[in-house]
Structure formats: structure tokens, C-alpha cells
Amino acid sequence: MTDAPLVSMRNITKRFGGVTALSDVNLDAYPGEVLAIVGDNGAGKSTLIKILTGVYQPTEGTMSIDGKPLVLNSHSDAIAEGIDAVYQTLALADHLDPAANMFLGNELTTKFAGITVLDNKRMRAETERVLMERLGVRLKSLDAATESLSGGQRQAVAIARAVYHEGLRVLVMDEPTAALGPQETARTLNLIETLKEQGLAVILISHSLDDVFQVSDRVHVQRRGRCAGVVKTADSTQQEVLGMIVGAEEAA
Amino acid sequence: MTTASTNIEPKTLQDRMEPYLAIIGPMVMILAILLFMGVAEPARYFRLSNLNLILLDAALYMPMAMAMTFVITQRGIDLSIGSIAALSGILMAFLIKQYAFPAWVALPIAIMLGATMGLINGLVITKFKVPDLIGTLAMDLVYRGLALVIAKGLVLARFPDLITDVGRGKIPGFIPIPVVIGIATMIGGYWLLKKTYFGRYTIAIGSSPESSEMTGIAVNRHKIYAYVLMGAAAALAGVMLTGKLNAIQATSAPYFNLHVIAAVVVGGTSLFGGRASMLGSFAGVLLLSMMINALVTLRIEFFWQSVASGVVIVSSVALYTWMQKKDRDGARGLFAGLTTPEGQKLLRLSAVVIGVLIALLAVGALLAGDPVPSG
To answer: Where are the beta strands (DSSP E) in chain A?
Structure first.
């Protein structure tokens, strides 16, 4: 963990018509760090990461990456800046094989008699390489449709799609373990550790405080559109974070 | 680096069969027809001239089955192809007969007109957000109506050699030209499906429109591509039909849509999207042509063809749905479902419907007088 944040969000406010979804939120993410964002439903977690990934534009506030100002007008702007997200639904096409999914919308091609055609062979090789080298995952078969893979393997394919982009620096993971069993959850948390060791800034959105306390370095707590505080995971307890989420201290 | 390597399990029989599932169904049915006809009418069914007839019939449907494979894989449907074929054929016929266009210009014009009609279908579905079923059904009425308006009751006949060659010509010592065209379109379709953006995105869109949208695929544009291909293929079929009969009229090709959809679905392409089998569509086309030819050979009334096609569609869709269901536990035999409260209620409903029908028939029979000839 270095001193300077990789990505900073300063005084972010987002209003939808009369509804204020976020007000005056600050967020810093460091390379080689897992930052967890927790909070109740409607606390503004999703809005916050959608602003970071360029899906929404903030009403007020600024962002910077590497100290340079960051203005995102679309999700593809964010990808170009090295910020990508893996959504809960994973955005996979279940009937296609893992390689086709990894390159979906971004296929590798080759020329055949002057015509641009898909290079299925190279996409397979690259998928195998990225899964093994970056994520340490080996699939039993790259031929099978993605629907036949386990939840954790599907997650790996979706992550591989994000990390294949060489410039990737910030990876947002939205509820990656929500639909997984205990074993698959452990594998996914391992993947997060792996990405962190590779120097990515990982932003993890989760409802599971167990998962959060297992992998995260810091926890950013959202409550009713505001940041209720940021704690170092090592110095805190699940009880304390839970209290911040529900606002127990305010009430007391 | 942490490792999350997965244990390698031996493939089950079902895993290994999965890729071939699509082709097994129609193959088994083709074998069944061959066996049955081998016993019932071997002499007439297996004559070379009859096999030629089967191929000629199948060739007409191959381009459309190829295109329909893409449309259905994208969770779409196109019910307007019969009318597109007829209208394109009529327009080509008029260009040739009335305006003396050379055939080699009129033919590609017909195909481009078909593509235009497909484009209109695609725009209606994606831009006006009319559901494909209603949209193409309505456009079917439009195209058929236009064909009737233009051709009135006329039968346009006697076309230049190029057109009849496309419809029924034969490469000397080889197979008929339409068969070459049909197989070439199927091979082209296979290539499109496996090797191009269009094929890849077709499966992705059918598999999950939301995921496709999220990964930046232009979903609507690729849907329109499929309908344009479908329109062009239907027009090609219209030209082939015109050539085959050396005549065309506004009411030609009435049953193209269901026949082609049946062939594609029998071939294992899923109506629920995402699962495409070009080889299966090819086998499906052959199967339907063999079946219809068998019915003719057995001298079964023409109208039974419609019954047979419908039964084949329903049974194959039901079969594929059942085969693709991953967990079939909880079933204690074929009739176990009848003992559940839900099953009991359905049984009672069936009993009431059939009972009332029988009662009404009995009343009618009791009160019946002498038959009155109609008209």
C-alpha cells in the first residue's frame, strides 16, 4: 500500500430529480488494497460505484486518478482509464463457451482471404492463459457452455474479462459472493486476494461482513447517502461496522 | 499466488452427448422414416427419381432454414417469410414479363427486395417495439396483401432459362442446381455462425439480451441483421419456387413459415434462444421433406401433411425441453403427476370438457333428422 491514493472521489453529490442519492461523499482507493463498501439497501453504494465506473455522472464533486482529474462520460471512458466492474449478474452469455464470453463484445479477429473472421483458437489460448496466470484457475473444459460451470468458475470468467485489459487498475466487484455457497465463496475471496497481490485496487461491495472482514483492508460505510465513516479492518470489529451501518451510535 | 484449481471430473455420458443432441433427434427420426418406408413402400420411395424429388423439395427450404436459425437463436421469430417469398417472386416476374428486365438483373433485385422487407420487419420489431410474433404476423398480411394487389388473380408463367435453372436445373451428371444453392447457403450459414461477429452475437443475444447489452453489443442492430438475412433468404426461396414451377402467383408459398420453423426447431435450435444448430436445421429440412414425401408415396391425403407437421413441431419442442431439464428428480413415473391436487383438478376439467362434448353429440344424434345437403 502506497501513500498516494490511485483514485479519489471528492465531495460527490448525486441527485435524481428531487431525491438526493449521495451527498458529499469522499472515497480513496489505493493500489494493492481491497476497499470494502458496506451499507444498507438504499445507502448509496450502487450509485457511488456507478459514478466511479462512468455509468452515472455526479451532480457535484470531482474525481481524480493518479492525481490527474478524472471526468467520465460513459462506462467505456472508465474502461479506457483502467476502471472496470464485475456485476452481480456477471454479464455472461450462458450458452457460449468461456472463451467466447471472455471476449464478448471485444473479440479477437484474424484475416481469412481478406475477410475479418473471429480467431477462436487464439481467444481460447488467451482465455486459458489469463485464467491460469492471473487467477490461478483451470477449467476442466473450455468447450463446455458457460452454464455448465460452477458459480465460482463463472465469476472467474467474468473477472478474467476485466483483467484481460492490460491497463486495468481499479476493479469494482458488486456482490460477488451473493449467490455462492461456502466453498465457492472461499474461492472467490481467494481470487480477490490474488488480484490485490497483483497491485490492483479492488473495491468490494458486499452485504456479508464475514467476507468483508476476511479480505478487505479498509471498510467504507455508507448510510443514507452519506459516508458514515471509514475504518481499517484490522482495527475494527464486525460489531462496530454493523453499528455504523444501522446508525446505532447516533441513536444511542 | 493462490490457486483455485478445480478438480477434474470424468465427463458423464450426457456431457459427452450434449453437443450432438441437436443432430441425434432428427437423425433418429430420419432413420425411423427410412426403416418404415423400407418396409412399407421400398420400391417407390427409394427410386432415384424420388430421392431427387426429396432433395429438390428440401433445397427450397434450406436458405430459409439457415436464416431462420439465426432469427430463432436470437429469441425472435419471423412469420412473414411465405409472403416475402411470394411478393418478391411476383415483383421479379413483373419486372421480367412486363418491363422486360433481363433475368440476371431481375433476380438480384428480387433478393434485395426481400432484404428490404426483412429490414422493415427488423425496424418494426426493434424501433417500434412491436413484439416479433405480432409484428411479423401483421407484416405477413401486408406483404401478402401487396402481392394480391399487384398480381390480382394472375398466374405469371414461362420465365427465362436462368430462373428455371435456379429452380429446377441440373448440373449434368451431378445434383440439381437448387440443391447446390441450398447446401451452399447452409455452409455459408455455418460459417457465419461460427466465425463472424454476427454469429457470435446472435448466440449471445439469444442467451442473455441483458448481458449482451452490458458488454456493449449493439443488440438491436444485430437483430435487424438477422431479419434482413431472413428476408433475403425468403426472396431467394421465392425465386427458386418461381423457377421450379415456372410460374408464380400471389397465393404461392402459403405454408413456408411454419414449415421452416418446424425444420429449425426439430433440428435442435432452441425457441428459447441461445442454442443454435446449423447442422440440425439441415437435418430438420431433410426430415420434413422425407416425411412429406413419404406421406405422398403412401397416398395419404395432402391435408394430413399439415397435421403431421404440427405433431412433429409439438413433440420435438416438448422432447428438447424435457431433455434440457437438468434435474428430473421427484418424478415417480409417468402418471405420478395425476395424483397431485393440481393434477386432480386438471383431470376433472378434462372430464367435464369431454363429458359435455359427448353429451352434446348424443343430444344431436337423438334429435337428428334427415341430412340436408349444403348448397
So the answer is: 7-16, 19-29, 33-39, 60-65, 68-69, 83-86, 109-112, 115-118, 170-174, 201-205, 218-223, 226-232
- The pLDDT assigned to B4 comes to 43
B327 three-state secondary structure: coil
On chain A, the residues whose CB falls within 8 A of the CB of B275 are 95
Kindly report the nearest CA distance between residue B207 and chain A, in angstroms: 5
Question: Interface pTM (ipTM) of the complex?
Answer: 0.82
Residues B61, B259 contacting (CB under 8 angstroms) = yes
Give me the total of CB pairs closer than 8 Å, taking one residue from chain A and one from chain B.
Answer: 93
Neighbouring-strand partners of residue A230? A220
Q: So where are chain A's domains?
A: 1-82+169-252, 93-167
Q: Would you state the torsion angle of the CA atoms of residues B188, B193, B199, B202, taken in this order, to the nearest 10 degrees?
A: 120
CA separation for the pair B101, A240 (Å, rounded): 85
- What is the reported pLDDT for B14? 58
Q: What is the CA radius of gyration of chain A?
A: 19
pLDDT computed for residue A32 by the predictor: 92
pLDDT higher at A249 or B199: B199
- With CB atoms and an 8 Å threshold, state whether A197 touches B1: yes
Q: Do the Cβ atoms of A136 and B211 come within 8 Å? A: no
Residues of chain B positioned with their CB less than 8 A from the CB of A163: none
**Which of B203, B215, B275 is facing A105, going by the closest CB pair?**
B215
Which letter does DSSP use for residue A1 in this model? -
Q: Do A136 and B3 touch (CB under 8 A)?
A: yes
Q: Would you say the pTM of this structure is higher than 0.80?
A: yes
What secondary structure letter does DSSP report for B176? B
Question: Which contiguous run of DSSP H or E holds residue B28?
Answer: helix B21-40
Contact B2 A150 (CB under 8 A): no
Amino acid, single-letter form, for residue B272: F
Q: Each residue of A29-78: pLDDT tens digit?
A: 999 999 999 998 888 888 899 999 988 999 999 999 988 999 999 888 88
Average pLDDT of adjacent 10-residue blocks, chain B of 375 residues: 43 59 78 88 86 92 97 96 96 94 96 97 96 95 95 90 91 88 97 94 94 89 97 97 94 88 89 90 92 88 82 81 61 68 90 96 89 74
- Helix locations, A60-198, DSSP H: 75-80, 98-102, 120-135, 151-163, 182-197
| Closest Cβ opposite residue A140 in set B9, B195, B197 | B9
- A1-82+169-252 CATH: 3.40.50.300
Residue B25, Cβ neighbours under 10 Å: how many?
Answer: 22
> Can you tell me which residue has the cell 430459409?
B64
Shortest Cα–Cα distance, A211 to chain B (Å): 17
- Give chain B's contact residues with A (Cβ, < 8 Å): 1-9, 11, 15, 19, 194-197, 200, 203-204, 206-208, 210-212, 214-217, 274-275
CA B247/CA B163 separation, integer angstroms: 10
- Option in B19, B197, B208 nearest A94 (CB): B208
- Domains of chain B (ranges; CATH) run 22-320 (1.10.3470.10)
Q: Which chain B residues contact residue A87 at CB under 8 A?
A: 214
